[in-house]
Amino acid sequence: MSIEMLDSVLNINADAVMTTAMAAVLLLIGYFIKSKVSILNKYCIPAPVVGGFLFMFVTFAGHVTNTFKFNFTTSFQDPFMLAFFTTVGLGASFSLLKKGGILLVIYWATAGVISIFQNVIGIAVSKVISLEAPYALLASAISMIGGHGAAGAYGKTFAEMGYSAGIEVGAAAATFGLISAVLVGGPLARRLIVKYDLKPDEDENFESDIDTVNASTGEKLASLDVIKNVTVILVCMAVGTVISGWIGKLIGMSFPTYVGAMFVAVIVRNVNEGAHFYNFSFSLVDGIGDVMLSLYLAIALMTLKLWELAGLIGGVLIVVLCQVLFMILIAYFVVFRVLGKNYDAAVMCAGLCGHGLGATPSAIVNMTSVKDRYGMSRRAFMIVPIVGAFLVDIIYQPQTIAFIKFFVKGFTG
What we know:
about 425 residues; 17 helices
């Protein structure tokens, strides 16, 4: 870490270790505040969101006053996300995966149809308020589902076509979507759970502490067992990354590394159930996953640039507000019923708000917050990451390009 004055602005440069340490402290602060402010716990607002938001306003103050700025190194962020999804895979047995079945297909189709409606809403609103189509589409599925990466790529393309604010609008819409995603998902699921008095499937409740798990096997978890469990996580991450690279080349498009790692982990978990290569501890792996996810999101939120929202001016702001309202209404009144009107459906609605407005990790942290308060939904934790991370792109990408080609003159993609 280093501190220097550049052009009368105090620059605080944090390396990867310091960035992670700051995220961890903010995470603890978030948990502390959440324990003291009952409304945050009541409505399932994730602790990383509480801590991350606080720091966002600190960096915003520095930007507005032009007195100080933080320069973070986020190189640990992606490995944290990769590790988390690996632990999700290790927590699933084939008996649970078989329960996903048709529900995965239904959720996938639902998410795909919603992505189409997002673009329809963007274009429809733009016609009413006379907003140029590229900006409307940047505030639609591109940023809501594609996140900052897609928003930046399409924004740059639009900027090169003459829509000068393309990059700024894309970044602002993606930031707004990410913030909205982690604010509405938990409360929406909580409302459904309370209204319909929903309970988790007891057969899928894997919640137990390490002592209970070890007692059930009759063995005490030795230090070597801990090392073996951690080693398996790391190996699954490495092998999954390689496999994801191969799949990406095969299909000719980006394939998320954490999806490959999750699938490898599922295979390892189930092979080990029969072969017993090592003493698998679900509670240990699950605990590691919770830490990885929390650190990932804390880093993601504390490094968000709140001033990017300045790009949400006029009609663009109206479009993104319509997108958030649409997601809330469609999840609450339609998707919940389509998915079965049960506890799993409520948790999956929280996940849908996460990756339908922000990103797949947002979906997971929404569901984790609900899980911590009301109980586990293993179906949701297996289906939502697969759809949000990759499958929805199969529908969202082609139809978005079709919208752009039809409504944006001169676009070739």
